[in-house]
Every structure is written in C-alpha cells, then in structure tokens.
Amino acid sequence: MPRSKLRAPGGPRLKSSAIPRTRYLVSLSTAAPSLAAQHRYEVVRWYEEHGRVARLTARHFGHSPDTVSRWVRALDARGMRGLEERSRRPDHVRQPTTPSAVVIRIRELREQYPRWGREKLRVLLLREGTSVSAKTIDRTLARLRRRGQLHEPPMVRKAAQARLRQASRPRRPAGLVVDRPGFLQLDSQEQRFGRKAVFTFAAVDFLTRKRVISAASQLTSAAGARFLARVQERFPFPIWAVQCDGGHEFRGEFALAAAAAGITQYTNRPDYPQGNGRVERSFLTDDQEFHEVEELASTAEGLERQLVVWNRVYEEIRPHQALGYLTPNEFYAKWVAEQPTATAGLSEMS
Q1: In the chain, is it the N or the C terminus that has fewer CB atoms within a 10 Å radius of its CB?
Q2: Which has the minimum average pLDDT: 21-35, 71-85, 181-195?
Q3: Distance CA 235, CA 245 (A)
C-alpha cells in the first residue's frame, strides 16, 4: 500500500512527508481505533508539528506534560495499540486466606440462620473458638453467593396490614423512666394458611428484650387474658405495666385481668407503631428469621410447638445488636448481677 494514501483516524488522506509518524496508521486497516486512541494520536501529531515541546502540547490540550510524554513513548513502542486503554487490574491479586473449615462453618451458620448478619455470625463463631472479622465473613458470603454455593431463602415483603381503629386509652407518660424489667409491650399477629388463620401473641420486656410468645386459634379478649396469665407465669420478674394497641383482644377480659393483677395498662396512640417498637421489631425478626425460613404448621397447636423452639433460639442463642450482641438471657443475668437487691431467680428464665 503506497504511503501517500494512508489515512489518519477519521480524517482525510495524509502524506507521510507532511505528517510525522503516519507509518503507525498501517494497522488501522484491520481494526478501527477507539475514540480515546484517536484523541491521543491527535495530541502526539500536534506535538510533532509544534516543535516536540511537551509542556506546550499539554497546555494546548489540557493534559499534563508527563501524560503527553507517555503517549509519545507508547506510540513509538507499540504503534496505535499503545494508545489504547489498558487494563488497570494488578498483576498479583490478593487470594482468600480464610481456612476452608471456617468457610464451611460460615456457610452452615448462614444457612441455619439466613437472616442473621455478619456481626451475629461473628459472635456465634467466637463462641465456638473461631475468631474472624465481620468483614471476612462478608467477603466469604459474597464469594459463596457468586459461586452459587450458598442457599438462602428469598426476601419476602409482606403486604401492608390493615390498621385497626383504636379507642382513646391512657397513654404512656412522656417522662416515664423504665429502669427495671416488668414493663412489657404486647401485640398480636395473624398468620394465614389459605382460608385459615392462626394468631400469634407476643410480649417483649422493654429493658431486657426477654419475650413470651404463643399461638391462638382465635383473636379474642379471652385469648388475650389467657396469654397475660401465661406471661405472668413465664417471666422471672413481676409485671408492673403493659403497653399494647387498641385491638379488641386487649380490651374486655384482658383489661379486667390486668386490673385484677395490679398491672397498669397503657395504649399506644393510633397509627404510631414506633411507640410499640420493641414488639414490632420482634415480629419483624420472626417474619425474616422464622416465618420465611421454616415450614410452618397450619394449626395453633403445631405452631405453638414451633414457637417454643424458636423462642429458645431468640432468647438463648441469637445475639441482639441492641443489647451489645448479648442474648436477652445474658443481658438479664448481667442486670441481676449488678442489682444488689435483685431477687429474681435466673433458673426460671425460659
């Protein structure tokens, strides 16, 4: 091919005697250069035509002199291919150093508790004598996901529940200080199995996060009163106040039972679930870590048995971030140890 007929990238025909370095354009007949390479070629050509002064060229195009010099050297060494973008990936990439036994254990714990994050898994591994950072657990889980070696249930977003109308009831005083166990937040939740419904009652202690949870076939004030009696029996400390929403299950017989036991009943204000945040967060944990993970029984009796096992995990195994990654039982034991007059028996903790 005659040199007089060579073309610059995207430009007219050029004569090699008029434009320096046009010999590098021979390779363009097989593969068109990128826009970035064409721009760099124009910079080098301007550099050749204006006295080969790097600083002048850099000022004209808005690049640094070092960049212009580097492009000149790249064109001399490799031709137009030298002006193409190159991978910036390091030659030596860090390889994982986590022992395979630890990786397997992280996967097992994640599949057993698929809604627990890296900090909770780190605490569980530490209990077993394995010390790894939370970031290492994150990276390990990410690698397992990319390889398809981690089996996790899909995230399920529950539809918004219909809000119940609430009657005007005594509210919790703004200045009330909860400095001891016995102030409970109560709520109920519905589980649908086709056309059949099973209801869950939960009572969460405001201070320690200890919890009693139970299933019922009907959502009535009588069922609520029976649940309150069970709560008084199961908690290792006296109940002095409860807070719940204005649902009918917390009126009637429930309210009479609470008054007879000397328990003050507060009602959360309407359309404000944050006011009952402890028990609402408890239900969210149940949804993510129990309902979406386990095969649930469709009867109140069967679900009750499953809830007993799950609540033991919730109170004795699951680290709670709000408690400094202690379990509710560990936090309550610590609180009792710090109270010289505390007389609650730890052996009664459920």
Answers
A1: N
A2: 21-35
A3: 21
Gap between the Cα atoms of 236 and 335, Å rounded: 13
Q: Could you give the C-alpha distances from 200 to 26, 58, 106, 310, in angstroms and in order? A: 78, 73, 32, 13
CB 9 within 8 A of CB 33: yes
Mind listing the pLDDT tens digit for each residue in 130-140?
999 999 999 99
What backbone phi and psi angles, to 5 degrees, belong to 54?
-65, -40
pLDDT in tens, 91-122: 888 888 999 999 999 999 999 999 999 999 99
- Higher per-residue pLDDT: 38 or 26: 38
Q: Does pTM top 0.70 for this prediction?
A: no
What one-letter code names the amino acid at 138? Answer: D
Q: For residues 214 and 305, is the Cβ–Cβ distance under 8 A?
A: no
The one-letter amino acid at 280? E
Hey, what amino acid is at 44? V
CATH number, span 179-338: 3.30.420.10
Q: Please give the single-letter amino acid code of residue 187.
A: D
Domain locations in the chain? 35-83, 100-147, 179-338
